[in-house]
Amino acid sequence: MSQRPYAHPPLSPLPTLAPLTPVAPDIVSLRDHEREARQHLDEARWAYLCGGAADERTVTDNQRAWQELRLQPRVLQHLRQGHTRLELLGRTLAHPLLVAPMAYQRLAHPDGELAMALAAAAQQTGLILSTQASVYLEHVAAVVQQMRDDTAPASASTPSIHTPLWFQLYMQPRWDDTLALIDRAQAAGFEALVLTVDAPVQGVRDRERRTGFTLPLDVAAVNLPPPTPSPEPPNAWTGVLRHAPTWQDIADLLRQLEQPSTHRRLPVLLKGILHPDDARRARDVGAAGVIVSNHGGRTLDTALPTAWALPAIAQAVGADLAVLVDGGLRRGTDVFKALALGADAVLIGRPCLHGLAHAGAAGVAHVLRLLRDELDAAMALCGCATLADIHIDRIFQKIE
Amino acid sequence: MSQRPYAHPPLSPLPTLAPLTPVAPDIVSLRDHEREARQHLDEARWAYLCGGAADERTVTDNQRAWQELRLQPRVLQHLRQGHTRLELLGRTLAHPLLVAPMAYQRLAHPDGELAMALAAAAQQTGLILSTQASVYLEHVAAVVQQMRDDTAPASASTPSIHTPLWFQLYMQPRWDDTLALIDRAQAAGFEALVLTVDAPVQGVRDRERRTGFTLPLDVAAVNLPPPTPSPEPPNAWTGVLRHAPTWQDIADLLRQLEQPSTHRRLPVLLKGILHPDDARRARDVGAAGVIVSNHGGRTLDTALPTAWALPAIAQAVGADLAVLVDGGLRRGTDVFKALALGADAVLIGRPCLHGLAHAGAAGVAHVLRLLRDELDAAMALCGCATLADIHIDRIFQKIE
Amino acid sequence: MSQRPYAHPPLSPLPTLAPLTPVAPDIVSLRDHEREARQHLDEARWAYLCGGAADERTVTDNQRAWQELRLQPRVLQHLRQGHTRLELLGRTLAHPLLVAPMAYQRLAHPDGELAMALAAAAQQTGLILSTQASVYLEHVAAVVQQMRDDTAPASASTPSIHTPLWFQLYMQPRWDDTLALIDRAQAAGFEALVLTVDAPVQGVRDRERRTGFTLPLDVAAVNLPPPTPSPEPPNAWTGVLRHAPTWQDIADLLRQLEQPSTHRRLPVLLKGILHPDDARRARDVGAAGVIVSNHGGRTLDTALPTAWALPAIAQAVGADLAVLVDGGLRRGTDVFKALALGADAVLIGRPCLHGLAHAGAAGVAHVLRLLRDELDAAMALCGCATLADIHIDRIFQKIE
Amino acid sequence: MSQRPYAHPPLSPLPTLAPLTPVAPDIVSLRDHEREARQHLDEARWAYLCGGAADERTVTDNQRAWQELRLQPRVLQHLRQGHTRLELLGRTLAHPLLVAPMAYQRLAHPDGELAMALAAAAQQTGLILSTQASVYLEHVAAVVQQMRDDTAPASASTPSIHTPLWFQLYMQPRWDDTLALIDRAQAAGFEALVLTVDAPVQGVRDRERRTGFTLPLDVAAVNLPPPTPSPEPPNAWTGVLRHAPTWQDIADLLRQLEQPSTHRRLPVLLKGILHPDDARRARDVGAAGVIVSNHGGRTLDTALPTAWALPAIAQAVGADLAVLVDGGLRRGTDVFKALALGADAVLIGRPCLHGLAHAGAAGVAHVLRLLRDELDAAMALCGCATLADIHIDRIFQKIE
């Protein structure tokens, strides 16, 4: 800890984004975007960006678990003046979607995270930037702020909608590097921290390894110190796991963030919670929220789908904490179901990458717009005028 | 409401129907009709007429849910003089099948709803005409009445069988338009109203959108005022949902229909009920019946299959109201199961369109005849001589 | 009943059977026989002989239901001197397999039921001859008796094994025709009657109808009076169902067979029972046994698989009556499971036709030998030296 | 028993092993090894080595049963200094994997069991040699001992890791042959006996029989007396089952091994236990452990998968005996789940053969290394630093 934290080189100016690409008219669903993206990425990039761990059963399970929930609509409800607004961490959001943190987005498109941020902000969609972003975090913040300014309501009569900007974080091997990253993100305008806790080691990424994927020279985690080569350890226990964070480390970090003397005041959400006891512990150490996630099926294959984990966690801590969920959401009805099972909001990951890969910012915006429209339709068809009307009773419980 | 209701232009004379087309001898089931119809319709018409919402999971679920119920027959019952007659809304019907309301049937065949009505009446099958019919409702009524006259029993000894003719209705944005439609349908001889309550917005019709379907110039909702172009609203909530009917609207309408002073006396069924509490509410506002339906999977994908929703609804209101069901019925055994789960009668939708598409009225009649014969066989093989013998005990309950 | 029963024409002499065809060495299971038979039969004969009702879901279910039961073996049991012998209707059988009654076997092979009988008797397998046999019942009895004589044990020390010969019967429209058939079967040496009670009407035989199957000129139900053409009735209720037998008819028949004055003394089994209450009623009217059957899925599609129906029926009447089962048994483990669920013996149908179709008597004998050997292996591997050791505890009950 | 036991011919010197073959870089999982092996073996060898009984449903079930268990990880546990060591039969093992006994490994590779032993020992993986090994058991023991010496820790500070070497045994028809084999194995350095108790007869090996597999001339069970030809018995009961061992035989053998006067002191595990009562009986007759196994689905098809049988057995005897399991384990997560359900260790069978078939000792070592690494990752990702942390609570229990 006595080492000096990593000092970042001066930033280059904000790059110019590519002109908008139109989205083909027969792309009308997130699966259409996926199909299209598959054409635009080589095998290795596809494997890295969209593949999962081992046999990719959790990847499949995640999607299927939402699909297999059946909706039981109510009819003739009062739907006029419905909307999708919600309160989250003290702000009013336009809708319950956020873009999930995903590493190295310049693998999908030259503009990478900048195009992603632009599209998200245009759709009033919160963005969670990955620690392993391939563009400078300050540039992302600038793009989001610019779009917020452009879309600010003309009059004070409209509710004051906020588009969130959060920073995803892995605890760094060196404590001071972690704090330096937090300081830098806060300074750039990021408003919350998302600590990923479900990946003490990499998953068994077979698809990726089969293609021999390595990062190309022009894509890197530009916000992190360059990796220091070290002798290959005999196994995981003596390798990366030496640095795996524990509940104690989280408690220490949160205590440090809470101290009155510190200028660090960002709320922290723990991402990767799958057990209600871990959710309770997150609450007890002072987290502002949990994200129910299995890392999109990229780490532990055959981990339970998040739709199965969510209800018990929402029941355990939903009254005290923000509960978000990701993994396999591909339809407005999936989002509706997540809210019915107790989530406050959801993260959308791979589908945004798909849009990005084949059509840049326009693709991402299209993906988010589709989901928003589908959510509107699902709410109306289930008889829910606001998110508060979405209760568990809209999920059919089959009595066998 | 002060605007004058839409005044309909004078009707043209009843068109001449095309000569009957024979049905190929290897078409022996509803699925054969579907396969054949698929050859006769282009991608876009098929998508509109036969497609469903989103991933079409509810379309598939509807069919599968009936199939997966297993029958447990009883043997050596007294079957002589069995029959399929039933009482429904005060009339005696030959059998428990009705043709479901479906829009724009001239997309499937030039004679559209006229051929459908002719075939239905020839098979003593009730017909529910869609608000969005592509022929004049008066013409349909004339065709049905003509066939009723032709098939009237010669002597008074035969039970007096009636072939129902009902009108399906969406609440129109303008109240007086709704009343004017009702008056016109009643004047033409329609005997009941089917209010569709499960489609406050259109579903996410991906298949349709992918093909770029639009109505051809020669097919229109000829019984409705022409649509008035209006500026595209930013989303559903400020668009169509401004006019979405509520329970209050239904109560108002039913009260109006009940007043002694009014000449309007048509019984009303609510179509699109999936929850027993909504069925109870339908009863409480004075509906004559409910139709358990998820709109054939065309609106809310992953809505529960109707076979799952039916039993609780039949139990809740079956003693008080007519309970009908539609969605995915493709076999006489499916119809038998619907009755065993508590339905009084069933609606058949897409299969009639399939017959219509490839063989006009003869195709529809063949479809209905197949179902009637299959129902006869299912009853005999399960040991039921009349519909009253069809109890829930014929559905096998597996004790795991 | 005043009409004279049908008087049968004099029999022709017993025909000479075709020479034995060897079975190919890569045919090692019943499914291999099925594949081979498929090559030897045209579409229409295959449809008639091996097809099922409607979508053939019960055909598939029957097989799957046995397969999905999991065995939980016990080890190190005393297996020396094990055997498969059983007592059934007062006789000692070599093993618990019988050939199911199947109509018109000459459709599969020129020697038809004669080859089937020869093979069955050679494998000490009981035979149930169909009313609709395409050879004279007396000829079948002669073939069986000849084989019994040929394989009689040389000394009295071997247990006296008997190979049963039963006659399957549909109640005929005319009572005296029924009695005449029974008399004739008894005179020929048949030892029990199998009354089929699950087919008051034909099933919805789509596959058959698609191929336009009709009986060829040289295949007929030679033991029955020729069908008298009659005007096509408007539907099933006024057609065949006029003659559908009832419990009263069965009771009358059994009473007649029981009278001390009568020379008719054949025990009667009811075939097609799927409900325990019907099994109880069969017992109460005096049946000697029931055969749990859904007619091989040829009549009512989506009827429950027999493996699901068997346990409750065996529990209801297994102590009082012989309980047999058929439908979808394709492996020695399937037979083992049927016995574990309470059956005394099983009927094998289509697999025998498969063997017959491609290799005549040798094919049938091979099928039966495979099943016998597989049953031996299943018993030994589950730790059962005799049929009496096969209890329900060998079926794994998953505690979810 | 008065016959003299089989006297083995003098051993030839230890053969030289083939040079190591590299494993292709796109082979990153056990399924990749399987695919590769499939290319290297002809149909008949593949059928014998990797096929299963009958329809191979248990082969498939075994794998699927592990896959369908869902993991529910815990996060932020203390993982530093984790490891996979365990105590088994009084020794410390590096990890909970052993190579299962498999016959005739020279069918897969000319070096057969010698290459297998070399690779196993190199990976500190215990080896169970089959009675039907195709190389001399003394040679296998020599290879293992050599590798143990080569990898012995330089200093006393490292925990003293032992690589087990066990001998699998079928009871021989002649008692003295059984004892002679045990003596010989013990003399060679084998440390435990694995008595296979689930194969009193061969399974119904359809795939093998279809290919007409027979042992080639250069592969034989060199540690057994040559088979004495005997007249083919009429069926299993009078054939091999005459010699099928019983609980009494096991008790006799174990008593003999326990006598203070005897030099035979090897602990005995019974392999092929699937019922908790049989596990209790194994304990009561003095076994040191049980191996939950269905013989890899090679004997009784539709036997329950081992993942279903394990929990009740572990609960019944896990406190008293070593409980091992095999069948269908293909992933580190599968191994993790087996431990969570109560196993102390697992046996890996076919995957080792796959590695052997296409890349000899290097292939086997690669298979074992993959599994070890995957187990490390699964433990870390589930929040378990040692095997003792792996509890049943990591298996998600869905509340339906």
Could you explain the architecture of this structure?
4 copies of one chain form a homotetramer. With 400 residues, chain A is of the alpha/beta class. Chain A contains 12 helices and 10 strands. Chain A has helices at residues 30-40, 43-50, 57-68, 112-122, 137-150, 175-188, 206-211, 247-258, 276-284, 306-317, 332-340, 350-382; strands spanning 86-88, 91-93, 97-99, 126-129, 165-169, 193-196, 268-273, 289-292, 322-326, 345-348. In chain A, the strands form 2 sheets. Chain A has an 8-stranded parallel β-barrel, surrounded by 7 helices. Chain A has a two-stranded antiparallel sheet with strand order 1-2. In chain A, helix 4 (112-122) packs parallel to helix 5. The longest helix of chain A is centred in the last third of the chain and has 33 residues, at 350-382. The model of chain A has no long low-confidence stretch (mean pLDDT 93). The C-D interface holds C 25-26, 28-29, 31-32, 67, 69-83, 331-333, 372-374, 376-378, 380-382, 385, 396, 398 and D 54-55, 57, 61, 197-204, 206, 209-210, 212, 235-237, 241-242, 244-247, 249-250, 270, 272-275, 277-278, 294, 299-305, 308-309.
